[in-house]
Structures are given as structure tokens and as C-alpha cells.
Design goal:
Number of domains: 2
Number of helices: 7
Strand content: 25-35%
CATH topology of the largest domain: Nuclear Transport Factor 2, Chain: A
Strand order of the largest sheet: 2-3-4-5-1-9-8-7-6
Order of helices and strands: HEHHHEEEEHHHEEEE
Length: 291
């Protein structure tokens, strides 16, 4: 107390300070909780987008595979190639199977492209979950920038003659990418019984690829283009593209797509499309994508 019987100024400030801190704690907790919810939601949206992309395309998941060289001066064909790539990306997001089929190459050698394996890779660890399957591999590749390990994903076709498993995509990775449609393990004993068939289908597919036997590959592949589905609630806001020649004689298109998920969350997706010329038109290979 001071001489007038009032609380001392220092003590008064101390009490107010204590009340202020106590009153703010719930607010801090609420803000922290809201931030945590936003981070969790953004993570789930990103995972969903990655899953739907990986479900449709061959994925080079290691970031070291990005095309890093200086693109140099532009050619007169690059804008034409980039327009085809942009149309493909928009059709992919919108689930426009007819457009994707029209933009994809029709010749088998263009559809599957040069084999990335220098020799037959070692296949191991098959796993099955009903109509989905995966199998891992290690091996030597023709491109030293692509990791020499990864996995194949497969789809089971009911009613198919002989082996019902078809190869949907090949993923090159040192760590299984988020959203990959590959089971972690076989779920039931019935699934385990399918593992030898998964391994056999994959072995035949890769063997045909090494030999350049595209007809056999076509018979062993799952064509996802006609039945493509819209990628959730993704909306493209802008696309930046840069086409340039690749060392294997083909053309690659680097892209950066800024998208919005669920009308709220912004997301940036970077990758590379593989382009090739058929007649007078440029086509985009639906079986390969660098992300």
C-alpha cells in the first residue's frame, strides 16, 4: 500500500500482468490448434493429389531426376510442343479421357518409349491388396540420373485369360513416394497366393521392354487413359512450361503448375512430361512423368 491506502503501482502492474497472461493462454492454445488443423488438412490434400497423380502415371519420384541443364535458346517448335503439354495437363486434371487419348501417341514404340533398364532388373517383395499389387526392383538403368530402384504397380483384370495382372506404371524412387498406389504388404492369404502371378506378369513386361517388344508390352499393360477420372477438386490457376530436347533423342517439357485444392488450399506441382512427334502432331506419353 502507498500512503493513501491504495495498492502500490508495481504490485498493481504485477496483478494485471498475471491476469493478462492467464487470459491469453486459451487464445494461444486455440491459435496453435487452428494452425495444427490447417497443417494437417494441407498435408492430407497434398497426399490425395499425389495419390491421384501417381495412380495415373509413371512417376520418377527422386528429385535428382529433374532436368537441371540450361535450356538455352528456344526453337520455333517449342511453343507448339508446350501447347500440347498444357492441353494434356488440363485434360488430366479434368479427367477428360477422350482428350488424353487424342493427345497420347498411337504408335507402340512412342507409347512406351526407350527401355530405361540396361538389363533385366532384380524383382522382389511382391505385395497384393485385392485388385491392386506392387513389386519392387533394383537394377542398372541407362540414365545415371534416375535411381536404380523403385517398383511396379499392377491392376488385376477380372475375367482375363491366363494371368489376370496388368502393369499400370513403373516408379523410380529411393523412398516410396507419398500417394503411390502400391500396397505395403499382402493383406490376406488369398492375396499372398497372387504374388507369384504378379511377379511373373512384371517379369514378362520388363523382358519385353528390354527387347523392344512393344506388342507384348501392350498385351501386358493396363490402359488407364479412357477411364481417367477428375483429380478431386483440383483447379489449375496457371501453368509454366519449357520444352527442350533430351539426351535420348526425345523432347521433354518441364512444367510448374499452380493449382488450388478444395477452392482454398494453394499447391505447386513441378514435373516433366515426355513428348514425341507423330506425323505433323506432337504427342504426350501417358506412361511416363517426372514429378
Amino acid at each position: 500500500m502507498d500512503a493513501g491506502g491504495q495498492p502500490a503501482a508495481g504490485l498493481n502492474r504485477g496483478r494485471n500482468c498475471g491476469k493478462h497472461v492467464t487470459a491469453m493462454r486459451p487464445s494461444h492454445k486455440k491459435r496453435a490448434l487452428r494452425a495444427e488443423v490447417r497443417r494437417a488438412l494441407a498435408s492430407r490434400v497434398a497426399a490425395a493429389a499425389a495419390m491421384m497423380l501417381a495412380a495415373s502415371l509413371t512417376l520418377f519420384a527422386d528429385p535428382s531426376t529433374a532436368l537441371r541443364a540450361d535450356p538455352g535458346p528456344r526453337s520455333r517448335l517449342e511453343p507448339v510442343i508446350e501447347r500440347a503439354a498444357e492441353a494434356y495437363l488440363r485434360a488430366l486434371v479434368n479427367g477428360d479421357g477422350a482428350a488424353l487419348t487424342r493427345l497420347a501417341p498411337s504408335r507402340l514404340e512412342s507409347k512406351y518409349g526407350p527401355c530405361p533398364f540396361a538389363a533385366m532388373p532384380i524383382l522382389h517383395s511382391p505385395r497384393v491388396d485385392a485388385h491392386r499389387a506392387g513389386i519392387l526392383f533394383t537394377g542398372k538403368l541407362t540414365d545415371p540420373e534416375v535411381p536404380g530402384e523403385g517398383g511396379f504397380t499392377l491392376t488385376k483384370l477380372d475375367g482375363a485369360r491366363g494371368n489376370p495382372w496388368r502393369v499400370r506404371q513403373v516408379l523410380f524412387f529411393t523412398k516410396l513416394p507419398l500417394g503411390a498406389r502400391m500396397p505395403k504388404r499382402s493383406v490376406t492369404r488369398k492375396d499372398e497366393a497372387q504374388e507369384p502371378l504378379v511377379a511373373a506378369a512384371t517379369r514378362r513386361y520388363v523382358s519385353a521392354w528390354v527387347k523392344g517388344d512393344y506388342r507384348t508390352m501392350e498385351a501386358l499393360a493396363y490402359d488407364w487413359l479412357p477411364g481417367a477420372h477428375r483429380i478431386g477438386s483440383m483447379k489449375i490457376r496457371s501453368i509454366e512450361l519449357r520444352a527442350r530436347p533430351a539426351t535420348d533423342g526425345e523432347t521433354r517439357v518441364n512444367f510448374t503448375a499452380k493449382v488450388t485444392m478444395y477452392k482454398l488450399l494453394p499447391k505447386t506441382i513441378e514435373g516433366t512430361l515426355f513428348a514425341m512427334r507423330e506425323g505433323t502432331e506432337w504427342k504426350i506419353r501417358g506412361t511416363e512423368l517426372t514429378l
